[in-house]
Amino acid sequence: MKIAVVGGESTGRTSVAEAVAKKLGLPLVGNPRERVLAASGYHTLWEWQAATGGMVGLVEAQAAREREAARAVVDAGVLDQWCFVERWVWNRLSPEAAEALHYTVVQAAGEYARVLVTAPRLVGGSAPGRFRNRLHVAQSQRLLDGILREAVPADRVCFLPDGDLPQVVAAALAALPPGSP
Fold it and tell me: What is the C-alpha to C-alpha distance for residues 165 and 160, in angstroms, rounded to an integer?
């Protein structure tokens, strides 16, 4: 079973993904952001993308990481990375390249047994490497809603409630298919 936890930055997505993975005893396919930024020296993915043009490759690499994990919880996977492509890169891609990448994202999303969507509210404080404002989260949520409608059957998507971490994790676990690990 593959479960994706998606949502805007600083909405508690990683905390939920880590807690669900631990509760289920599944490996975590973590957010690629920290690895990319540590290796590159940039402070945000936006800066990294502007300097390197690497976002398309990041989405393709994330899709490959997810394919390798048959059973896992995915934090900030291809759906979240696709939203960054739509915001920062889409207009620079040829139609063929954009459609090929879109196909990659839709294929990867089709492997999720559940997609758990964090509530679009900020829970984290200031930190390097992140956008942390409500407008960014609202924009990310609109883009995420679009790709979810297109790529994931509605019965596999669960919008998590706003609340403290134990409440949100309980709701996430309750949303999983019967007989989940």
Answer: 11
Encode pLDDT of 166-175 as tens digits: 999 999 999 9
Ranges assigned E (strand) in the chain:
2-6, 28-29, 72-75, 114-117, 157-159
DSSP H helices in 110-157: 134-151
Distance in angstroms (rounded) separating the CA atoms of residues 91 and 77:
22
Q: Would you identify the CATH topology of the domain 2-174?
A: Rossmann fold (3.40.50)
**Domains of the chain, residue spans:** 2-174
CB 49 within 8 A of CB 55: yes
Per residue in 32-66, pLDDT (tens digit) is 888 888 899 988 888 888 899 888 999 999 999 99
